[in-house]
Amino acid sequence: MSSLMWYIYDFARKAWASAFTDAKTNPEIAEKPERFRDFPKVNKEFCIGCGACTVSCPSPHAIKIVREMDDESGEGSTYPIINPSSCIRCGFCAEVCPTDPKTLECGLNHLILPEFNLIPSKRQFIVDDYLCIKCKKCLKNCPVDAIGQEDGKIVVDQLKCIYCSDCLDVCPVNGAMKRVFVDNLQDQKELILLCVNYLEDFINSKEDDLRSLEHNGLLQYDVSISEIMDDALKIIPDREVSFEIMSNTVNRLKIRVIDWDKSKCEKCQLCIPDCPTSCISFDDDKDTIVRDKSRCLRCSICYQTCPFSVIKYFMAKFACDDENIHIIVKASNLNEDIVE
Ligand code: SF4
Ligand code: SF4
User: Fold this and answer.
1) Residue 111 C-beta-side C-alpha neighbours within 13 Å
2) pLDDT at 340 over 60
3) pLDDT at 29
4) Is 132 exposed, middle or buried, given 0-12, 13-18 or 19+ CB atoms closer than 10 A?
5) Measured CA distances, 244 to 107, 192, 195, 295, 328 (Å)
6) Atom of ligand 2 minimally distant from the CA of 48
7) I need a surface site. Which of 188, 198, 268, 287 has the fewest CB within 10 A?
8) CB half-sphere exposure, 3, CA atoms < 13 A
9) Mutate to test the pocket of ligand 2, among 39, 42, 53, 245 (most ligand atoms within 8 A of CB)
10) Atom of ligand 1 nearest to the CA of 40
């Protein structure tokens, strides 16, 4: 055997060389290390369309939000789609997504720590009596005796529970012990949307400040939590839970704010066909351009299309303490945000 052939033969015999070829032909046998970050998986049913993921993404064409057509069964849903050839798997989108469960998941991404979960201290464990086989393993393993039996059913005493998850770990039936956040996930989505819409409306109400803001200038505002709390309590009546959802949402939220200065509009209508949700139209009777804000995804395509600087766009970040939401708004342009 020539020495070259011998080297190739020896190379192919190495354990890691065969592991590599096996993994290539049979990907399911490849073990992913703990730090491995997958492409984000999209759970579209949880999306509230806040747009925070598109704002956080550092890759220009990796993520966009789409909106399905409305039909007779109701409003089309809004959710992100990921372009795998542009996504760099940084996981920023999953990190900022305020919903819980997350709309975007990045596998065992070391950046997505449990504390990013929305309301960790308010997890509740409940037993699904339909699936429970009454083996009582949870009851025996609970370190604080929070689980007992009532009328033949296994029940968790929520006041004693310390949310350790031991019951979930020992339960032999998938789904019999459930970990839930609040009774109604839809309520949680509604509350998050309430915060996002309130904050966007608040910033939009500062129209004069926004329009006079210098390029790359900053605006700072404080909003009292009590301003939102009354409406929040109508959705989730528990003040502590509502506050926790609100503060966790607000602390990781970034939103793009679109401002339309109609006084500058020359009615060229170039923005109308470019809007991906058809939320811009021309009202012939009133001879003016109209934007349906409820359908706007804050994608800022109109900002890029408009030749007359009618549309400006701003980035807003938030931080929450016990009493106030602190807001910082930055005048910006899209290209700078892409490289930020
Ligand atoms: S993982 Fe990073 S690059 Fe990929 S879509 Fe999410 S934010 Fe964009
Ligand atoms: S960040 Fe907002 S728009 Fe993006 S996936 Fe999460 S909820 Fe949907």
Assistant:
1) 15
2) no
3) 67
4) middle
5) 25, 11, 12, 28, 21
6) 7
7) 287
8) 0
9) 53
10) 1
pTM above 0.85, yes or no: no
From 116, 96, 112, 86, select the one nearest 338 (Cα to Cα). Answer: 86
Mutate to test the pocket of ligand 1, among 55, 93, 340 (most ligand atoms within 8 A of CB): 93
Q: Supply 181's token pair.
A: 């956040």
One-letter amino acid at 91 equals G
Atom 4 of ligand 1, residue of closest alpha carbon? 87
Task: Please give the C-alpha separations between residue 43 and each of 48, 82, 94, 295, in angstroms, as whole numbers.
Answer: 11, 12, 11, 21
pLDDT tens readout for residues 39-54: 888 998 888 888 788 8
Write out residues with Cβ below 6 Å of ligand 1.
40, 56-57, 59, 62-63, 82, 87-93
pLDDT per residue as tens digits for the range 63-79: 888 888 777 777 778 89
pLDDT tens-digit readout, 192-215: 888 888 998 899 899 889 888 877
CA of 234 to the centre of ligand 2 (A): 24
